[in-house]
Amino acid sequence: MNIVLLDTNIVSYLFKRDSRAALYEPHLENRELAISLMTIAELFQWAALRNWGIVRVQQLEAHMHRYTVLPVDIDTCRQWAQVRAIRSKAGLPISPQDAWIAATALRYQLPLVTHNPDDYPSHSRINNYQRSLSYRPIFPNLSPKLLTISTCYPLLIIGMAVL
What we know:
Strand content: 5-15%
Structural class: alpha/beta
Shape: globular
Radius of gyration: 16 Å
CATH class: Alpha Beta
Order of helices and strands: EHHEHHEHHEEE
Number of strands: 6
Strand order of the largest sheet: 3-2-1-4-6-5
CATH topology: Rossmann fold
Helix content: 40-55%
Number of domains: 1
Number of helices: 6
C-alpha cells in the first residue's frame, strides 16, 4: 500500500465532509493516509480559535486516529531548515507551517496531497527533480499542479488549481 501525506486542508475537508474532498478521492483510495504533527497543531488551533466545544474537539480527535502521524526527527528538522533557507534565499517565502508539512513529505519521500499547491511554489534553483502524474481532472476547470522544492528528494504535490 502506498502512503500519501495530506495537507491540513485535505484533512479538514474530510473531517467536515466538505464537497471538495471528492476531488482528492482518486488519490486517497487504497492508500495509507499520513499527516504531519503540524497538521494536528493547525487543526487544534482552528478549534481553539473557533471556540469549539468539547464534543466537537473529541470528534476531531477521533477523526485524527484515521491517519498515521509521522514522527519528527532530526532529519525532518534538517529538511525544514533547508526548505526555509532555500525558499528565503530564492525570495520565495514559505510559512513555518507549510515548511513543516513540506519537510515531512521530503523526509519520508511521500507525495503531498493539498488543495493549495501555490503554498508550495517551485523555483528553478530549487528543483532538481520533477515527477509526472497521469491524471484526468474531475472537473474541466481544475487541473493538477506538480511541483518540487527539494535539493535532495522529489516532492510531488497533487493539488487542484483553478484555471
